[in-house]
Amino acid sequence: DVTNQPAVTRDLALIKVSAASEQRAEIANLVSIFRARIVDVAPDSVIVEITGTEDKIEGLVELLSPLGIVEMVRTGQVAMMRGTASGVRYAPGANGNREIKQVAG
After folding, report:
1. What is the pLDDT along the chain (105 residues), one digit of tens a residue?
2. Cβ proximity of 76 and 11 under 8 Å
3. Which of 13, 23, 75, 98 is spaced 20 to 30 Å from 68 by Cα?
4. What ranges do the domains of the chain cover?
């Protein structure tokens, strides 16, 4: 838990947007403004990857919505303590269970 610690937090979203050829330039401009990336192009859609704060992602979603969001997945917030502080990480364990591993500091 990094709630009361100095930490870097981010959210990741993949957003599939309807994209006829005449809309692709508009989508590319929005993606550029938000420092996101187009990671897949299909004949009738594109998939946009964006990483940032929840507000940043919501801003892009709001602007892409009128173009037609087909599908979206998000990680939710992930965080890491800033500086040299040690934390805890999760690693695959026996039988697929997650085991807590102390990170050497």
Report:
1. 777 778 888 899 999 999 998 999 999 999 999 999 999 999 999 999 999 999 999 999 999 999 999 999 999 888 888 887 666 666 666 666 665 555 544
2. yes
3. 75
4. 7-102
The rounded distance, in Å, linking the Cα atoms of 73 and 89 is: 23
The beta-carbon contacts of 64-67 under 8 Å, at least 24 apart in sequence, are 64/15, 64/17, 64/27, 64/30, 67/17, 67/18, 67/19, 67/23, 67/26, 67/27
User: From residue 5, how far is each of 80, 85, 99, 102 by CA, in Å?
Assistant: 9, 10, 23, 17
pTM over 0.85: no
